[in-house]
Amino acid sequence: MATNYGGYAGKVLKIDLTTKTYSEYEFSDKERELYLGGKIMAAKILYDNIKGIIDPLSPENILVVTTGPLNALGAPSSGRFNISSISPLTGLVCSSNCGGTFGINLKRAGCDAIVICGKAEEKTLLKITEETVEFLPAEELWGKTTGATQEAIGGKSGKIVIGPAGENLVKYACIISDERAAGRGGLGAVMGSKNLKAVTASGKNICKPFNKEKFMEINKKWTKALLAHPLTGSQMPKLGTAGLVTGMNARHILATKNFKYGQFDGFEKISGEYLAEKYLIKNKGCISCPIQCARVVEVGGKQVKGPELETLGLLGANVMNDDIEKIFEWNYELDELGMDTISAAGSLAFAMELNEKGIWDSGLEFGKVANITDIIHQIATRSTEVGDILAEGTRNMSKRFGGDEFCISSKGMELSAYEPRGAVGQGLGYAVSNRGGCHLNAGYLVVLEGLGLSINPYTHKGKATLTMTFQDLMEAVSAGGNCLFTTYAVFPGFLISKPNSIMTRLVNKIMPYLGGVLYLAGKFPTLLAVNLPSIFPHSVCLKAATGMKLNFGKMLRIGERGYNLERLLNKKLGVDASCDTLPKRLTDELQDEANKKSKVPLEKMKKRYYRARGWKNGLPTARLIKRLGIEA
Ligand code: SF4
């Protein structure tokens, strides 16, 4: 089915591994307007195909790979793509964003998205071109690491692959494209359960923007603005996400010793500054990105991708390790074996605390690094009892051994490295997030609560509407095809570079009310029917790329629609308000005895959040569904 909109290839392909057939999946221009692309397009496809609770590792599950309209057009930081499915880790909807080159190549093969269903009888490699889809044998690839697999099938460009962890159905196995991961939620295990080792895409199809001249003009200005901004033009290229470690430690939000503390004595030795000074070989990053936030370091004489902040925090402070070289090594091993570093690290930390409390002796101890490489391999291969248990993730481990109150996950997904008792809005986000304990799907409020701006991190005031607003905005940005880090630059640069100026302090005071103001304005859509090119270039860029009548308000509404649609899908899978939880360590125990506000006032914030969203018992009402134009 062709499209009248620019930016899209105009085709979604449904591939059935059981019958080895493929056909076009109908996705209309009306649906493109409502759901745009990326994770929201995937949510629509999943919603229409998943009827109720399923075993995520059964042939009933589907894997949906989507691009956004900006992918392959050359807009700044728009090389990323999305993979969604029902997660074996949470049993719920999961979308995972990836900076590899598969998305762009999928568009070159003439597809905006692929929907992979069924289960192949034999180990399979899918090869997608403009003309055809081939189902090739992959027996010889089985057992290979992600790097070796890509090398064996023609190099790193334009592939998605799994490693041994995906083959062995590790609940948090990831999918790798080039060196980048679609990390969260165990989508690698979904591929493994389908006997699908790899997918390649290639072709010569060229997607064009609707208004090329305008599009180029916007991108030129946008790139300039990103490079001039203190976060996206200076801190991120200089230090990467690793640059957040020092600030997180200072603000008591660096998860330490399985989230018991928010500060780590050895933080300097796992910081972005230390990495840059002693180990950085060069910057790298996703295609079409002026920021280039990734780090290249050396492991065993080989130049490899360095760890992100989450990995540094969780394989550093959270397991009481200050040996950054070990983190480089584990990060590399986890990528090669195909496992999410966040959930793997969270599972290790939980096991360490179980051991410390005398509940389960796995041999893992806080601060002991000698056996971790071995245990990471045991997890990926499930070759020992310890590895097999850890491969199930923290929620399943706590079902077996207890320790609920310090099992640091939400909806079964392990939290990332931000300790939310020092940034309570981030805590709300972790709890209500559709995919579970994820910092990005949470709305990433920690950026406002100390890592960019400095609004009061301990108050519940304003956090509900801000969380909702940022969740919706980030949904829309991701659906369009941009990296979420481009949203850092929506805050005027002086707020970051002059944190103590009168103006910055004033903004920090006013900011908690912004979400509420946008929420009220959203009730009268014409009030937000504006474009703000210097603050939020995403909507003008998408307008020029697609030809859709987009503006800031419409983008916000698309994000809101996407967030609610994922929630409705989760409702089919058994979710309601009782699933929006955090472990008691974070809601009932003070992080700092001297600070009575240093715990997450979750129930108070949840009530306000549901009210702002228009949800009852944690679910969208019929009225809201109608207002958003969702056909449910
Ligand atoms: S900012 Fe970093 S993660 Fe985002 S697109 Fe650029 S290189 Fe990739």
Give a short synopsis of this structure:
The chain is of the alpha+beta class. Helix content is 39%, strand content 12%.
Mean pLDDT: 96
Query: What would you call the structural class?
Result: alpha+beta
Sheet of most strands: 6 strands, mixed
Rg, Cα atoms, Å: 22 Å
Describe the model.
It is a single chain. With about 625 residues, this protein is α+β, with helices and mostly antiparallel strands. The protein folds into 3 domains: about 10-200, Aldehyde ferredoxin oxidoreductase, N-terminal domain (Aldehyde Ferredoxin Oxidoreductase,  A, domain 1); about 255-415, Aldehyde Ferredoxin Oxidoreductase Protein, subunit A, domain 2; about 420-625, Aldehyde Ferredoxin Oxidoreductase Protein, subunit A, domain 3 (Orthogonal Bundle). About 40% of the residues lie in helices and about 10% in strands. It has 26 helices and 19 strands. It has a 6-stranded mixed sheet with strand order 2-1-6-3-4-5. Strands 8-7-12-9 form a 4-stranded mixed sheet. A 3-stranded antiparallel sheet has the order 13-14-15. Helix 7 (about 210-230) runs antiparallel to helix 22 (about 535-545) and helix 18 (about 465-480) packs across helix 23 (about 550-570). It is globular and about 60 Å long. It starts with 11 loop residues before the first strand and ends in a 5-residue tail after the last helix. The model has no long low-confidence stretch (mean pLDDT about 95). The site of iron/sulfur cluster has 12 residues, from loops.
